Amino acid sequence: MQVVVITGLAQGMGREVALRLAASGDAVAGFDVDAEGVASLRAELEAKGARCLLRTLDVCDRAGILAFRDDVLRSFGRVDVVLSNVGIGFFGPFEEVDLEKASRCLEINVMGTAAILQAFLPGMRERRSGRLVAVSSLVGQIPFPFESIYSATKFAVEGLVRSLRYEVEPFGIDVALISPAQVSTRFAAKIHVLPPEGSPYRERVRRFIARDEALIQTALDPASAAGEIVRILRAPKARLDNALDAKSRLFLALNRLLPGRLRDEILLRQMDIR
Question: What is the dihedral of CA 54, 58, 62, 68, to 10 degrees?
């Protein structure tokens, strides 16, 4: 049995991962700001006899995260894997972005990831065993137009985890990044908002949204994505970079191999904003 901590587990991929882990006998601890989602997941897990410790908690609550960590260690004695899955989207032409709202995205996506990994790191270092995993995104390596703030947060998560690897590997701790292209949840639809009439970006954003929402219809579903994530969490040795589907692997490979101008042309045509 492994003890796995998951942030952002009330809905979507996080919830599916929790259910799959619990079904195979792992203990699941985690939190989410969605109190109703947390309560329903707790009821579902307990009905199946799973060992779990779930809390309603904001990832920006530093003291709350440390108290949660202490509760988890008291309950289970150790943590084997931490999966940072919490995150919010942010969409819009950079010129028109509300930077106060953007700072909230940076706080949740970047510092939230840092906070949960840092909280459980000392116990793993002392045991000389553990795995720290962060969900990033395709846009953490391939910046997309109209997603500059969100892309910046995922580039930051990538840099954080890549740097952290050098620090913790000598203590027997693996780190991994998971970079999905798209998953067929309502994540993108919640943030897709057209600029106001008169915006110089409105028409290109309209085409981008239409193309993005069409692509989501054929994207990986949360249950399939969760199956891939569980495989990554349980692999004997973690790989640093992990894609969830063939489309993600293709785009990331092209990003590494193709000249910059060709990459840009493919992206602009793919998203119908040439």
Answer: -10
Tell me, what CATH number does 134's domain have? 3.40.50.720
| Residue 150 is a catalytic residue | yes
- Token pair 């309603």: residue: 56
For 39, the domain range is 3-270
Q: What is the pLDDT of residues 201-234, one digit of tens each?
A: 999 999 999 998 888 887 788 899 999 999 999 9
Average pLDDT over residues 250-261: 86
Confidence check: pLDDT of 166 > 80: yes
Q: Is it the case that residue 186 has pLDDT exceeding 70? A: no
**How many angstroms separate the CA atoms of 70 and 79, rounded?**
11
Distant-in-sequence, close-in-space partners of 238: CB < 8 Å, separation ≥ 6: 131, 133, 174, 175, 176, 232
Statement: residue 185 has pLDDT above 70 = no
From 150, 201, 208, 251, the catalytic residue: 150
How many domains are contained in the chain? 1
In 249-269, which positions are buried (b, 16+ CB within 10 angstroms) versus exposed (e)? Answer: eebbeeeeeeeeeebeeebee
Residue 3, beta-bridge partner list: 27
Give this prediction's pTM.
0.93
Whether 157 contacts 112, CB under 8 Å: no
